[in-house]
Fold:
Amino acid sequence: MQIRKNILSLFIAFCACGSIMAQIGEARSSLAVGFNGGVALNSVGFDPSIKQKWHVGPAFGVTLRMTSEKYFNTLCALQVELNFARLGWKEDIYNGKDEPLPDTYQRDIDYVQLPFLARLGWGREHRGVMGYFLAGPQVGYGFSEKTKRSEVWTTNADGNPDRPNGMYAQYEMPLKHKFDYGITAGAGIELNTRVGHFMLDGRYYYGLSDLYGNSKKEVFSRSNNGTIVVKFTYLFDLKK
Structure:
């Protein structure tokens, strides 16, 4: 919980700094729109922990960018996206003796996501290369889920899945909290040309909400998404 508070405090400080810079900079009023696409690598921060591999899924959507100010060499903008992302978790399964098993399990959860990103850029504003940093809050809604499980399913003498610490309740647990929210931040590079803006960036999303209940009577005290996203974006100017 303290980690989540620290992340939220850092984000508020970043936004406050960007707001102050925008108030005393050179005015801009450019508007660009386009699309994005990439890959999302997700894991769920379960507590008690569950061994996982990266869950790999698609991530794509539409992007709107509004550039408002330039403060010295820093270009300030607001970037809003409406995205689809397939998240979830993929288990790296061992038995109670910590031996690898042939069992496989994957949960796919489809989300619609809405990030609001403050963006600071440095470099060539019109023709050339620009580097940038972005951060902001993100909300999402899990509207669909699906399970993939191997035919081989190792059980113990009681007929339950043979897992470390006896953790197998997640297999029968549907998503409880469909609403997801957290903080995302990343950095990238942009090529500005006559025909538009081409961007490549990497981001990390830290979920401040949980997939399941986290009270003392629940199975997990924590179950939040953590996502690495690598994404390509193309924007064209509606207004310069």
Q: What stands out?
A: Residues 2-23 form the longest helix (22 residues). The two ends are 43 Å apart (CA to CA).
